[in-house]
Amino acid sequence: MLVVPNAGLLTLGVLQSSMHMTWMRAVCGRLKSDYQYSAQIVYNNFPWPDLPGSHKQNQPSAQAQQAQAAIESEAQAVLDIRANYQQPADPAQKPATLADLYDPLAMPPDLLKAHQRLDAAVDAAYALCGGKKKWASEPERVAFLFARYQQLTSLLPAEKPKGKRKAPAAHS
User: Fold this and answer.
1) Residue 36 in contact with residue 29, Cβ under 8 Å?
2) Where are the alpha helices (DSSP H) in 87-171?
3) Which bin fits 130, alpha (ψ -120 to 50), beta or left (φ > 0)?
């Protein structure tokens, strides 16, 4: 069991996002077909978005603060919807387990939509640090996350994008 002490809604929201799940599937170990999540490889090396709660900054931008607030709001929405199923108002209804709620064939539509909104909020936060607001595929997310990881861990200055080279003029 892994524990993140003093974790808040920002941490919960990012860890439940498609972005983090993509990273986890790309870097974690496996035992047979089961994922082996480790703090040393998966969590500690995850390239978090630049938000006030993810690290200390002098003056986070208004956009970063809004992105963090959006993730926290959507993470709370996921928790609220899950609580409705885990502690139903109707005593005749059986409380749902997490396994029930996250069964891919029977996931409640409102919970699925809440996770989609959370993913959109997390993607918007990564867009502030060079990512996209919408991703075409998981490999595209992986490529971005590894580039971001390299950017965050490199001791060398970031490379400037190279412009297109003109083709040499043909000599007659």
Assistant:
1) yes
2) 98-101, 109-127, 138-153
3) left
Give the pLDDT of the chain (172 residues) as one tens digit per residue: 778 888 999 999 999 999 999 999 999 988 888 888 888 899 999 999 988 765 455 556 888 899 999 999 999 999 999 999 998 888 888 999 999 999 999 999 999 999 999 999 999 999 998 998 889 999 999 999 999 999 889 887 766 666 655 656 666 5
Distance CA 122, CA 67 (A): 8
Strands 34-36 and 29-31: antiparallel
What predicted TM-score, i.e. pTM, was given to this entire model? 0.82
SS3 category, 30: strand
Helix, strand, or coil (residue 166) = coil
Distances in Å between the alpha carbon of 37 and those of 28, 95, 115?
Answer: 6, 28, 21
78: its two tokens: 């996921």
Domain spans, the chain:
9-153
Q: How many residues does the chain have?
A: 172
Judged by DSSP in three states, 31 sits in strand
Euclidean distance between CA atoms 54 and 106, whole angstroms: 34
